[in-house]
Amino acid sequence: QMAGEALYWYARARKSTFEEVLPESLKRTADYAECLLSLDPKYGLIPVADAPYGIYAPEKLALLAYIMPHSHWVTLFRQAWSHCSGITADMLALLLEPKIPAEGPGLRSFLSMPDTGAVSSVRKWNDTYLKIFQCGGNSGANHAHQDKGSFVIQAGRDTVAMDPGVGSYDDVIGSSLGKVHWHNMLIPIEDGALMEPDITIGAKPQAEGNDTYFHSVMDLTPTWQKDYILWRRTLYSKTAEVLEVKDEYALRRGTGVAFCLITPLEVKVDGNQALLTGKDSQTIVTSNEDCRMRTESVPAGGSRTLQRLWIESDHKQGVLKTIFRFSESTKGES
What we know:
By secondary structure, this protein is mainly beta. It is 14% helix and 35% strand. It is built from six helices and 18 strands. The strands form three sheets. The protein has an eight-stranded antiparallel beta sheet with strand order 8-9-10-11-18-15-14-13, with no helix packed on it.
């Protein structure tokens, strides 16, 4: 926002056009906007890493939507513009808004950003879409969270498996959201204590997909060298109705593992099965028969309360298969 206004006045002072002074790098962010675009209307971009949660102000998006009129920066800007009823005191947003298209483009079924390791799959599901987003990361990245291998699932307007984003650094909860137990991870446990990965080491998924299926493999062993001899995570979804998460692992230290799943939805556990219920979706989560499931409500900063589903195994090595089956919600909420 501030950079855009500075560039606008710089162009005026140099008697140049606004377009002539815009950095080329800004014009190469269209894939980023689409990859992280949220289907859940409570968010603009999917909150991951140090991204705030919620809908961004239009003044933060106007310049990007203007530069890339055929991108989902337009989708994000129009969502924000509607959210604030077109009321803003930002001069640049008011100047650019009439020049920005009324809506963004369609969604691609598969998108990969190999430089950053982010991938997304968007497939038709019932009368809406199912989105899977998986984040990787480069070694030495600043502000990295303990999230390599984590993923986000959105079914229609519901975020089924989420990343909480970031909170205020001066808040004890907000400053902890980067920890491993706030992400959808397989965590080594030693006598009840959770291990933590090395955030300075990167990992990226090898993924492919189309309008029918999605497949991703990540070797996460290097990020957990002290704790895992092996951790390889595979996401496989032959159709949009089912997602299988296969975690192959062998512990270097620890007494077992726990699959941590973060969700804002209502959760009911029955044996080794959990039911997650939202406005558009019902998700049945199952895992190995000898696993234990339990859930807890956790404050996530501000007025947010999320659910943490634990799937625990006492095996020091093996394969943990967690199946997500998506169906239409019976709640009938609008």
